[in-house]
Design a protein that fits this description.
Helix content: under 10%
Distance between the termini: 43 Å
Largest sheet: 8 strands, antiparallel
Oligomer: single chain
Order of helices and strands: HEEEEEEEEEEE
Shape: globular
């Protein structure tokens, strides 16, 4: 599972970092565009939230694990779209409100617990408000759980934010 996640990270990283200017899986029109370079992703909670619990995939799909990251936040904090996309789900799953955004190219982000007034099919741009932190589940009143799937496989959402490429030393002169 960790090998799959590492490979998925490389694929996502390459797609995000190598996308030509102006290219994106979706081209939504929005009233108030956020200042960000084309192909980049933003944190869903500004400015840079503390990561309370990192991604910890299970060894097998059916085993327990942490299929996302928990970001420090409080009920009522505004949650923003980390990238452009189309809302594909808004509703309750078990005991918490959830919103899912389809970013195209097999990438889906999920956020919980999040109360949202958006409906399925709503187009969101990078940085657009998608809802507010609510209560419920393991993040109850202390965090936002952010999940990322690539073709149905959970991968580390921080791969879209943090540059994990190795440093390259260039010759002087």
């Amino acid at each position: 599972m960790k090998t799959v996640s590492a490979f998925a990270g490389l694929v996502v990283g390459a797609a995000v970092l190598l996308a030509p200017a102006g290219a994106s899986p979706l081209s939504p029109v929005r009233a108030n565009p956020a200042p960000a370079a084309a192909g980049s992703w933003n944190w869903p909670l500004p400015p840079v939230p503390e990561v309370l619990r990192p991604f910890d995939p299970p060894a097998e799909r059916w085993l327990g694990g942490h299929r996302g990251v928990d970001l420090a936040g409080s009920p009522g904090d505004t949650v923003s779209a980390p990238a452009a996309g189309i809302v594909s789900f808004v509703g309750r799953i078990v005991d918490r409100p959830v919103i899912v955004i389809d970013h195209g190219a097999g990438l889906l982000t999920s956020f919980e617990p999040v109360r949202s007034t958006l409906g399925v099919g709503a187009i969101v741009g990078i940085g657009d408000e998608i809802g507010m932190i609510a209560t419920g589940a393991h993040c109850d009143a202390r965090c936002l759980h952010w999940g990322l799937r690539l073709d149905g496989q959970y991968i580390d959402p921080l791969l879209t934010i943090r540059d994990t490429r190795p440093s390259i030393l260039l010759p002087l002169g």
